[in-house]
Automatic annotation (TrEMBL), chain A:
<dbReference type="InterPro" id="IPR001851">
    <property type="entry name" value="ABC_transp_permease"/>
</dbReference>
<dbReference type="GO" id="GO:0006865">
    <property type="term" value="P:amino acid transport"/>
</dbReference>
<dbReference type="GO" id="GO:0005886">
    <property type="term" value="C:plasma membrane"/>
</dbReference>
<keyword id="KW-0472">Membrane</keyword>
<feature type="transmembrane region" description="Helical">
    <location>
        <begin position="6"/>
        <end position="29"/>
    </location>
</feature>
<feature type="transmembrane region" description="Helical">
    <location>
        <begin position="229"/>
        <end position="249"/>
    </location>
</feature>
<keyword id="KW-0813">Transport</keyword>
From TrEMBL, chain B:
<dbReference type="Pfam" id="PF00005">
    <property type="entry name" value="ABC_tran"/>
</dbReference>
<dbReference type="InterPro" id="IPR003439">
    <property type="entry name" value="ABC_transporter-like_ATP-bd"/>
</dbReference>
<keyword id="KW-0067">ATP-binding</keyword>
<protein>
    <submittedName>
        <fullName>High-affinity branched-chain amino acid transport ATP-binding protein LivF</fullName>
    </submittedName>
</protein>
<dbReference type="InterPro" id="IPR027417">
    <property type="entry name" value="P-loop_NTPase"/>
</dbReference>
<dbReference type="GO" id="GO:0005524">
    <property type="term" value="F:ATP binding"/>
</dbReference>
<keyword id="KW-0547">Nucleotide-binding</keyword>
From TrEMBL, chain C:
<keyword id="KW-1133">Transmembrane helix</keyword>
<feature type="transmembrane region" description="Helical">
    <location>
        <begin position="259"/>
        <end position="284"/>
    </location>
</feature>
<dbReference type="InterPro" id="IPR043428">
    <property type="entry name" value="LivM-like"/>
</dbReference>
<dbReference type="GO" id="GO:0005886">
    <property type="term" value="C:plasma membrane"/>
</dbReference>
<feature type="transmembrane region" description="Helical">
    <location>
        <begin position="73"/>
        <end position="91"/>
    </location>
</feature>
<dbReference type="InterPro" id="IPR001851">
    <property type="entry name" value="ABC_transp_permease"/>
</dbReference>
<keyword id="KW-0812">Transmembrane</keyword>
Length: 287, 235, 341
């Protein structure tokens, strides 16, 4: 039963990792950009949530109402102001610029919020649990997983069923020809980053409710998101959810064997997938 | 004399250090169908890319309805009513046939063309509307590419070698559709390797050779010798 | 003009002058223990280690297209190997440094086979995962102090040289030697046949592949060599620090972020870039370090601005202005204009 419990908890944790990954996957899909600062942007979402909660006394989940649009706006401005200038055939500029951005963000967090770990208080939500078939499941992890499924379904819908998604796919297919359709790729990229950071805001708030975070927490979140993307297969959003679940389960099962093995087990699961299925379990685009 | 719909003024174009166009002058009026012929590598595609904004030039080198557009981006030019059917069709592989057409119409310009009008022109596309664009034959893909450009209801449409790589029957059916397209006053530039085809559908013809205009005149009464001289650069 | 001839040469006036000057500077630097103070020597030692790290990172990113944000894996690995080989293997620290290099290169082989499956930017994050795996693994080894780390026993430190100033001079010379070695290895590698392949890859990977250059092998060799040398540097770094812990050993900020900034600011894809970048980095650090986090924010902004506005860095700017090259790598065609007489 303990093992079943570990697997179920890991699955739910995977929802959070899928949320870390979804934004990464989205912007890679649309503009082939790999954002090293992605983890720090998740943490930015958490700090913004914390700020709103402290200023207004709102429940952290309600803070989403402010944080999601703020992060989306930041995403649009960031993309149009800086990141669009780095896109091209050379992979160095986007990598190094987002790396620089990561360092800047971390130090801004340090200045603004000190190095002390912070956490958002979600009240009873944090401790509430339901018992299902002898397992006690936290309401927060369940909610997180449900949100992850909803977010991925929503992104999937936007991508494949709306004019915006059509534009995303067209620009991703062929930037030049997409311009001929009247699509301004800079604007489309800005919208894609806005959408990605809206998702990132949700991920950040859920992270900040679940665990404490500090200015350097972003690196690990980038890595988890990245591992979920690669395990699931590039360009496949549902695959990303499965990737997140595999990572989460590996971590909770690893922790069950030995607490020190929690994170290591997740990375090893990733490396094993990389060794036997280098394109991930459900690849869609080669990239 | 009304203002020309398009004029190129000493248009130059470069790929890095390589110069592809050397001071091309061209003028066309509303409702005209212009053919551009020339050997491979003469600069025909480059000229269409310059007009549609895929290559940027000095503003005044391309003037559209009196507005200098040489320095505008492709999406801005598209919004002004110029559409390109690119060489090699270049459909969006991850979009279905219908989505390819819809994205062509996203500018929402007024005019006769709509999804149903395109389906009327090319009925086979209606049957295959849900197919991925990659699942169509070459000729059908070309119909999608043409339909996609029409969907924006352009005032000026540019065709780049629409018969390239297609079987003669297909070419014929596509060219048969052309009068229905340019009939209602739409201006068109047609780049075509098949000279007699080019002459038969156009009002006037320009011949390019190594980045320069080597001949220009009305399509109806231009001599074969003049063309072969302009085409190959030999007497 | 008919009796004009061409000659092709690698050297130039600037390179010859630089060679002579470089030799002079090197001699002055070797003599530092006799003219420099203790603090200055420490600073210069650190500078040389960063110069070496930067040159190796530049070899990977600037020439082989291997953008790694995980070279701290090898810095930390080398540091830990120094501790393990001296404490448990009973090796003299100097042998342990060499051993760390060999082991670093050996472990880089399976690592490369695995992460070379990731392309482009994803490779970068993959290198970071590897560094995390190393960090978490060493934190599990209780014999090396687990998560809190351990110190180098006094006996081992003493075995290096009996007096403190002797040890300090030795550490300084080793750091200087490391920088010279790293630059020389990069220079020789780039002059070799493989170096030509590398330059071809840097300029156009597709074309290089179609010319029959084995891109994978070339990159693999670069990765393994750079990683082995980085592990040696790690051993040297922690021989100076005398204390190691997983967080310090595998710090992405200390061993990768700063190194990347150095190379980007100095000029990526040139041998001279890391030298200039290191000088600028230390100058900035010595003047702005009191600002703490602000200093790092400024550094990040400078790096972004350089990447966007002058992607070839300070050295690229100088080259464009004055057409100069201190390490003769390019071939130049000279017209020996005999017609002028
Ligand atoms: N992307 C490019 N890079 C470099 N040169 C090009 C490129 N595209 C075309 N060219 C050159 O420009 C010239 C004109 O090409 P193009 O306009 O495609 O000719 P056409 O369409 O008449 O066959 C040719 O010499 C061609 O080699
Ligand atoms: Mg052409």
């Amino acid at each position: 039963m303990d093992w079943v419990n570990a697997i179920v908890q890991g699955t739910l944790l995977g929802g959070l990792y899928a949320l870390f990954a979804a934004g990464l996957s989205l912007i890679f899909g649309v503009m082939r950009l790999v954002n090293i600062a992605h983890g720090d942007l998740i943490v930015l979402g958490a700090y913004l949530g914390l700020t709103v909660v402290m200023a207004t006394g709102l429940h952290p989940l309600l803070a989403l109402v402010f944080v999601v649009p703020t992060m989306a706006a930041i995403g649009y401005v960031l993309q149009r102001g800086i990141l669009n200038k780095t896109l091209g055939d050379d992979i160095l500029p986007p990598l190094l610029v987002t790396f620089g951005l990561s360092v800047i963000l971390q130090n801004l967090f340090l200045e603004g919020y000190t190095a002390d770990p912070q956490k958002m208080n979600a009240g009873v939500l944090e401790t509430a649990s339901v018992s299902v078939g002898g397992l006690s499941l936290g309401v927060l992890p369940l909610l997180t997983f449900a949100i992850a499924v909803a977010v991925i379904a929503g992104l999937q819908f936007i991508f494949y069923r709306t004019p915006l998604g059509r534009s995303f796919r067209a620009v991703s297919d062929n930037q030049e020809i997409a311009q001929l359709m009247g699509l301004n790729k800079r604007h489309i990229f800005g919208l894609a980053m806005a959408l990605a950071l809206a998702v990132t805001a949700i991920a950040g708030i859920l992270l900040g409710i679940r665990t404490s975070f500090d200015p350097t927490a972003g690196g690990a979140r980038l890595i988890y998101g990245f591992e979920a993307v690669i395990i699931g297969g590039l360009g496949n959003l549902w695959g990303t959810l499965i990737g997140g679940v595999i990572l989460g389960v590996a971590q909770t099962v690893g922790a069950k064997i030995d607490p020190g093995w929690q994170l290591l087990a997740g990375h090893i699961a990733f490396l094993v997938v990389l060794a036997i299925r280098p394109n991930g379990l459900f690849p869609r685009v080669s990239g | 004399m009304p203002e020309p719909i398009l004029s190129l003024n000493r248009l130059e174009a470069h790929y890095g250090d390589f110069q592809a166009l050397y001071g091309v002058d061209l003028e066309m009026h509303e409702g005209e169908v212009l053919a551009i012929i020339g050997a491979n590598g003469a600069g025909k595609t480059t000229l269409l890319r310059s007009v549609s904004g895929l290559m940027s030039n000095a503003a005044a080198q391309v003037v559209y309805c009196g507005t200098p557009i040489g320095a505008l981006r492709a999406d801005e030019i598209a919004a002004l009513g110029i559409a390109l059917v690119p060489e090699g069709r270049q459909l969006f592989p991850s979009l279905s046939v219908e989505e390819n057409l819809l994205i062509g119409g996203r500018l929402n310009r007024e005019g006769p063309w709509s999804l149903s009008a395109v389906f009327e022109l090319f009925p086979v596309l209606k049957e295959r509307r849900a197919y991925p664009s990659t699942a169509l034959s070459g000729g059908q893909q070309q119909m999608v590419a043409i339909g996609r450009a029409l969907m924006s209801n352009p005032d000026l449409i540019l065709f780049d070698e629409i018969s390239l790589g297609l079987a003669p029957v297909i070419i014929k059916s596509i060219y048969d559709a052309l009068p229905g397209i340019v009939g209602d006053g739409m201006s068109a530039v047609i780049v075509e390797q098949d000279i007699s085809k080019a002459l038969s559908v156009s009002d006037r013809v320009y011949c390019l050779m190594e980045g320069r205009v080597s001949l220009e005149g009305p399509s109806a009464n231009i001599s074969r010798e003049a063309i072969s001289r302009a085409y190959f650069g030999v007497a | 003009m008919s009796n004009q001839t061409h000659s092709i040469s690698r050297t130039s006036q600037a390179a010859r002058v630089a060679g002579v000057l470089g030799a002079l500077v090197l001699m002055v630097l070797i003599a530092a223990p006799w003219w420099a103070g203790r603090a200055d020597m420490r600073l210069m030692g650190e500078l040389f280690l960063y110069l070496a790290l930067a040159s190796l990172w530049n070899l990977m990113a600037g020439y082989a297209g291997l953008v790694s944000v995980g070279q701290q894996a090898y810095v930390g690995f080398g540091g830990y190997m120094l501790f393990a080989l001296t404490i448990f293997g009973g090796l003299h620290p100097l042998y342990a440094i060499a051993g760390a290099g060999v082991l670093g290169a050996l472990i880089a082989i399976p690592v490369a086979t695995l992460i070379f499956r990731l392309r482009g930017a994803y490779f970068a994050i993959g290198t970071w995962v590897i560094a995390e795996v190393f960090r978490l693994s060493f934190a599990q080894i209780s014999a090396l102090g687990g998560g809190s780390g351990s110190s180098l026993p006094v006996g081992i430190v003493r075995s290096l040289a009996s007096s403190r100033s002797g040890r300090e001079s030795l550490a300084y010379w080793m750091a200087l030697g490391a920088a010279v070695t790293a630059i020389t290895v990069v220079y020789l590698l780039l002059r070799s046949r493989r170096g030509l392949a590398l330059t071809a890859i840097r300029d156009n990977e597709l074309a290089a592949g179609s010319l029959g250059i084995d891109i994978w092998r070339t990159k693999f060799v670069v990765y393994v060599v750079a990683s082995g040398l980085t592990a040696m540097l790690g051993a040297l770094i922690f021989l100076q620090k005398l204390r190691i812990s997983p967080d310090a050993a595998f710090s992405v900020n200390d061993w990768t972020a700063f190194v990347i900034f150095i190379v980007v600011i100095g000029g990526i894809g040139t041998i001279e870039g890391p030298i200039i970048g290191t000088l600028i980095f230390f100058a900035l650090r010595e003047t702005l370090a009191d600002l703490g986090t602000t200093y790092l924010i400024v550094l990040g902004i400078v790096a972004i601005v350089v990447m966007l506005k002058a992607p070839k860095g300070v050295w690229g700017f100088i080259v464009e202005r004055y057409d100069m090259q201190l390490f003769p790598l390019r071939y130049r065609v000279k017209l020996n204009d005999q017609a002028k007489r």
